[in-house]
Amino acid sequence: MSTTPDPRPLTGEPVALDLLNTRWMHEGAVRDLLTDTEGLAVWLAANGLDFPADDTVLRHVLQARDTLRAAVDGPPEAPEAPEAPEAGEPLADAVAARVDAVLAHGRVRLTLTAHGPGETPEFSDPSWGPAWLAARNYLELLDTAPDRIRRCAHDACILHFFDTSRNGTRRWCSMAACGNRAKASRHYARTKES
After folding, report:
1. Rounded distance, CA 167 to CA 185, Å?
2. Helices (H) and strands (E) in the chain, counts
3. Structure pTM?
4. What are the residues facing 23 on neighbouring strands?
5. CB contact set of 150 (below 8 Å; sequence gap of 6+)
6. For the chain, what percentages of helix, strand and coil (3-state, to nearest 5) are there?
7. Per-residue pLDDT of the chain (194 residues; tens, 9 = 90+)
8. Could you tell me which of 102, 100, 98, 95 has the C-alpha nearest to residue 73?
């Protein structure tokens, strides 16, 4: 368990999006929490994932992050990130194959517990656990509300969130940060025109 504080500006999103949010913008530069196993330990602890923070887990988590980024944002060379796929709309076959490759390292065993039906994840190699859990969570988000998987609307922000607002109109990772910056920019543009 890491005792290092989490430096990221947005935490607490579902694990798939929280993994994407291990990269963020700070003062015009991209920061990356997962540059080493110490950062991995911070991310694992933030998500309550009890796995070792070693180089093998880090390699698998980075592979999952790149895969999820391609699934959510589209390929890096795409000029504009597409919206999350609509319900029933297929992901690009290559991206789906990458997600499936991560998911191939685990499975869900259905169980009956004292509280009713349950699920237990099982992994072919435990070092794939965090990566597999993030990929599985992405599938759950797609199943729940694919149109609510969002990238912050601020041009300079690369964070993602799952919109849980009642009417589904959240645009910013944080109204206090990106939302206010956008409002200030619009205000500046209006006053400059006057």
Report:
1. 25
2. 6, 6
3. 0.84
4. 32
5. 84, 160, 161, 162, 163, 170, 171
6. 45, 15, 40
7. 667 899 999 999 999 999 999 999 999 999 999 999 999 999 999 999 999 999 999 999 999 999 999 999 986 654 454 555 554 555 688 999 999 999 999 999 999 999 999 999 999 999 999 999 999 999 999 999 999 999 999 989 999 999 999 999 999 998 777 866 656 666 556 677 76
8. 95
In DSSP notation, 44-65 reads HHHTT------HHHHHHHHHHH
Residue 25: exposed, middle, or buried by beta-carbon count in 10 A (0-12, 13-18, 19+)? middle
List the structure tokens of 118.
């349950």
**Sequence letter at residue 159:** L
